[in-house]
């Protein structure tokens, strides 16, 4: 069986009042293995369930009640939002904890954090290990339940006006976008897909 890969979609539209783009997850989606249409997933919990098992249980449209491959896609892959590709098999976030993914201002990558039931933000596995050791009430939670793997940002969906990190000039802007056809040419599909935006 081929490796499965997840596609995460992250919002990059500017808020109506201007200001910074939204850089956290606001919508989850999965791509059907049969028809390759995108289906919006209702919650991060449902998304995590699909993501952790996508290699064994590929996502198909009829997994959503009342939906089939004959129905139009819920959402389309395009540059109106920033899309990112995630790894399959990332474990579900342990109960009481929250996994947070934040897109960097320069759109170079995302950062992963875990928020504990006490509200503490954990940035590394060492911090997680320290928290678990200091809080025996979480002895049923394993360090292997945590990962700081982050999704890959899809360059062809990054806004053109984003300044590149480490550019020779502070005025350097992104090159004009060219569509890589991630969905259309099978690049993301070949390995399966789940998405957030």
Explain what this protein looks like in three dimensions.
This protein has 197 residues and is α+β, with helices and mostly antiparallel strands. It has a domain at 6-91 and 151-196. Helix content is 10%, strand content 19%. The chain is built from 2 helices and 9 strands, in the order βββαββββαββ. The chain has helices spanning 44-53, 125-134; strands spanning 6-10, 28-31, 38-41, 82-86, 98-103, 110-115, 121-122, 152-153, 193-196. A 3-stranded antiparallel β-sheet has the order 1-4-8, with no helix packed on it. Strands 3-2-9 form a 3-stranded antiparallel β-sheet. Strand 2 (28-31) and strand 3 form a beta hairpin. The protein is flat and about 50 Å long. Mean pLDDT is 77; it is low at 1-19 and 167-192.
Mean pLDDT: 77
Quickly count the helices: 2
Into which percentage range does the β-strand content fall?
A: 15-25%
Which strands sit side by side, in order, in the main sheet?
1-4-8
Organism: Citrus sinensis
Domain CW-type: 22-77
Keywords: DNA-binding, Metal-binding, Nucleus, Transcription, Transcription regulation, Zinc, Zinc-finger
GO molecular function, one term: zinc ion binding
């Amino acid at each position: 069986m081929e490796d499965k890969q997840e596609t995460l979609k992250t919002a990059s539209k500017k808020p109506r009042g201007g200001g910074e783009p939204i850089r956290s997850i606001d919508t989850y989606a999965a791509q059907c293995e049969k028809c390759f249409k995108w289906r919006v997933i209702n919650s991060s919990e449902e998304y995590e369930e699909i993501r952790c098992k996508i290699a064994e249980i590929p996502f198909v449209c009829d997994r959503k009640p009342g939906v089939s491959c004959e129905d139009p896609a819920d959402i389309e892959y395009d540059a109106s939002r920033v899309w990112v590709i995630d790894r399959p098999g990332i474990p579900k976030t342990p109960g009481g904890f929250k996994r947070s993914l934040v897109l960097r201002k320069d759109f170079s990558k995302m950062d992963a954090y875990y928020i504990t039931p006490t509200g503490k933000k954990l940035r590394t596995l060492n911090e997680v290990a320290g928290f678990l050791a200091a809080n025996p009430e979480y002895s049923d939670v394993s360090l292997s339940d945590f990962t700081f793997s982050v999704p890959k940002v899809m360059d062809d969906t990054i806004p053109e006006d984003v300044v590149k990190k480490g550019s020779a000039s502070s005025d350097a802007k992104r090159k004009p976008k060219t569509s890589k056809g991630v969905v259309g040419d099978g690049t993301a599909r070949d390995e399966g897909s789940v998405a957030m935006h």
